[in-house]
UniProtKB/TrEMBL annotation:
CDD domains, sorted: HTH_XRE (cd00093)
InterPro entries (alphabetical): Cro/C1-type_HTH, Lambda_DNA-bd_dom_sf
Protein name: XRE family transcriptional regulator
Organism whose genome encodes this protein: Rheinheimera mesophila
PROSITE patterns: HTH_CROC1
Top-level taxonomic group: Bacteria
Residues in HTH cro/C1-type domain copies: 14-70
A GO MF term: DNA binding
Amino acid sequence: MVKERANLHGGFIIRTVRKYRAMSQQEVCFLYGISEKTLSNWERERNDPHFGHVQAICEDILKVELIDAITMAFDELEKQKQEAA
């Protein structure tokens, strides 16, 4: 279980919290000043965002502390695994 937490992708964390906050990719991109393609690539796990981007988007844009965002993403991952089983 600890190994899974260590491998949690930054884009998955952002996507999980963004959906929880009911914000569109466009809104996050506008507020953070990045392109929609960049955010889309992060969320689709095509590129890995720098840790600082994950923290800034979660805390400054989505207003969720990083540790809470990681917990939310891990819970979502577990939920997806249970639904797939």
